[in-house]
Amino acid sequence: MAYELLRRIIAGALPMTVTHEEDIEHLRILRDAGYVKADIPLDDGAAAVVNAVTPLGRTAMRYFGGE
């Protein structure tokens, strides 16, 4: 689930590299929602990099029971 990935991103160190395809798809959801700033390549199999969690992302995590 995308919120579980957001929880892991907030708990980890940034920048964070994401390599699993399922996590990259969840990362796209989080980026499109405005919760994170991330560089996601168009190539399949390439790693994505999360650069920041936005204030909106932190608010969403508090609302959904994280952080």
Would you mind describing this structure in some detail?
The protein is an alpha+beta fold. It has three helices and three strands; from the N terminus they run H-E-H-E-E-H. It has a three-stranded antiparallel beta sheet. It is globular. The relative contact order is 0.26.
What quaternary form is this?
Answer: single chain
- What is the H/E string? HEHEEH
Summed up, the domain count is 1
Count of DSSP E strands?
3
Radius of gyration: 11 Å
Return the structural class: alpha+beta
Instruction: Characterize the overall form.
Output: globular
The CATH topology turns out to be Arc Repressor Mutant, subunit A
What's the arrangement of secondary structure elements?
Layout: H1 2-11, E1 16-18, H2 21-32, E2 36-39, E3 48-53, H3 55-63
Antiparallel strand pairs: 1-3, 2-3
Helix pairs in contact: 1-2
Compact overview of the structure:
With 67 residues, the chain is of the alpha+beta class.
Which tags fit this structure?
46% helix, 67 residues
